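Person: I have long wanted to understand how a fold can be written as tokens. Underneath my words sits a plain record pairing an amino acid chain with its backbone structure tokens. Those tokens are not coordinates but codes from a learned vocabulary of shapes. I should like you to check that the lines agree and flag anything odd. The protein I mean follows directly.
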Amino acid sequence: MKPIRHIVIVGGGTAGWMAAAALSRLKEGNDLAIELIESEEIGTVGVGEATIPPFVEFNQLLGIDEREMMSATQASFKLGIQFMNWGKQGDSYIHPFGAYGYPIDGVGFHQHWHRARAEADQRPIQAFNLETMAAYFGKFSRTEDFRGQDLPPVNYAYHIDATRYARFLRALSEKRGVVRSEGKVVDVTLDGESGHVASVTKSDGTVIAGDLFVDCSGFRGLLIEQALETGYEDWRHLLPCDRAVALPCLREDGSPPAPFTRATAHSAGWQWCVPLQHRNGNGHVYCSAFMQDDEAHDILVGNLAGKPQADPNFLRFVTGRRKKFWNRNVIALGLAAGFMEPLESTSIHLINTGVNKLIALLSLAGITQVQEDAFNRFTTKEYVRIRDFLVLHYNATTRDDSEFWNHVRTMKVPDSLVEKVELFRLNGQIFREEDELFTETSWAAVMMGQGITMQGHNPMADRIPATDLKKEFDEIERSVRFAVDRMPTHHDYLKRYCPAPEQAAVAA
């Protein structure tokens, strides 16, 4: 075992600087050098602007001030994702971050809700979710704003400018001792005996040796694939979209930023809208087998809220994952590790959890096979479960208005997903396996939102007298209404809590 004294991160962007910021915490009390190599010549993808709640915890662990970060990245708050035209044309539902109600007598809320519906209670399940109702009315507050009151917690994430976020983390990382090295990596040297990466060479001839390398070089996988030939597992038979065009725009209609991401299905894919404080991040994800680039671009431009602020950025990708995420002394993060669509905002999350697992498993005494195997096993499970959840969105549809929707509606899906859907359809049962990312509410929201109905419910839900159940439901609904009524608008909250510099200047 060779001690780890020098960690080299190849590539900047969101992945590189998230890794650098987190690993910089290891420098305190340890003889450790951390160096990040990036080139101004190589642009970052920079379209991943929507996050999910674990990202809030990631920033807290780094000791980041939320207000400062949100102001610097022109961020807004996010309570969930609105899906439009997915189950069928004209459909709309929100996948919220918080739970529907709460378990009653040890049974999930949606089970009791199904029973109540059968007994003529016509209230939609969304009425019992704080995040959904706040999103519908454009309201926002944090849990701390209701301190001392018995109200549901507010679960949220952020919409951020990913380029600005990387810049923010760079300043933090360099302050904590991470060294940034400018230049393009043109060669990788492997150790003849171990096969580990020994060093990388920049275009100016500088050789940088290291003990542990973190590959954040994007789709190229400069170390994990080009040098170590790790291999890639192609998932296009399950997630066939392989193109995207991204285009930020102004909000010229004067509308305030919504506290949710919007994903609108089109004829061969879908469009994202991520509202920041000053602009919207937009993109159209599509399948090249069913749509050409020009058509995808025209659909995107035709559905913008204002004037484009940049040239369109066309991206090509293959959905899937590396066959190993940790290979020898290289750990791949971000796009170098794999890619699944930004449909549920999991791209930045997978960087987050990859960094967390690396820090948890890392020993500065050296690298062992046990560490590598554990990292790969945990990460593979995470990718597969997220993959199944994304596949659900495409497969659970009645749309037959295009070849694309006919294809994804009838394609063979993993047995694990078939089981999940059939159990829910039978009696509403949803099993979360180990530390699966998506909650019972997440699965229920998408399945019900896209037309998968419960034929029955868990008989344990019948134990509570109807009058007692109605009292519970009434109390939950009152709490949600009380909280939403007292929330300021999302726009006003941003202006008071974390105005971006340009906004603050205007207000002054």
The longest strand covers residues 269-275. The chain has 16 helices and 21 strands. The chain has a mean pLDDT of 95. The first helix runs from residue 13 to 23.
